[in-house]
Structure prediction request, 157 residues.
Amino acid sequence: MSVEVTVIHGDLLEQKVDAIVNSWNRNIIPWWLLLPQGVSGAIKRKAGTVPFKEVAKFGAIPLGEARLTSAGGLDYKGIIHVAGINLCWFATQYSVTQSVKSAIALAEQQGYKHIAMPLIGAGSGNRSTRWSYQCIMNTLEQLDSSVAVKLVKFTDT
Prediction:
């Protein structure tokens, strides 16, 4: 069964799903030294620091991999953090493709049926909205999964 995708124009944190995806960094720099922006900043403002403290315990995250934390103060089963940008703060086709695959695999392992995903690589990843959207869609079209994805094309953060 292929991945069911719905493109949403809106706020990632307002989606009715089991989990959201946070396009995070590689976890090399401690979270408390960073000023989370975009999606990560919105998550921190609404969820608090708990998910970021939890993801820090994983140490360095290999490029394109995903880690699960609690949702903090948000009403989700969890937050899937993906290492979508390299050490130069740049998203590549590899980092985005692998991040999408890792997020779907982790959602499947947890039994999540619906996740919401931002445009991994856009913004802090120095890629355009169009590039990120196309890369994610190309990846999702090739996957077989029962996880439904709400791809949030524009976030109100």
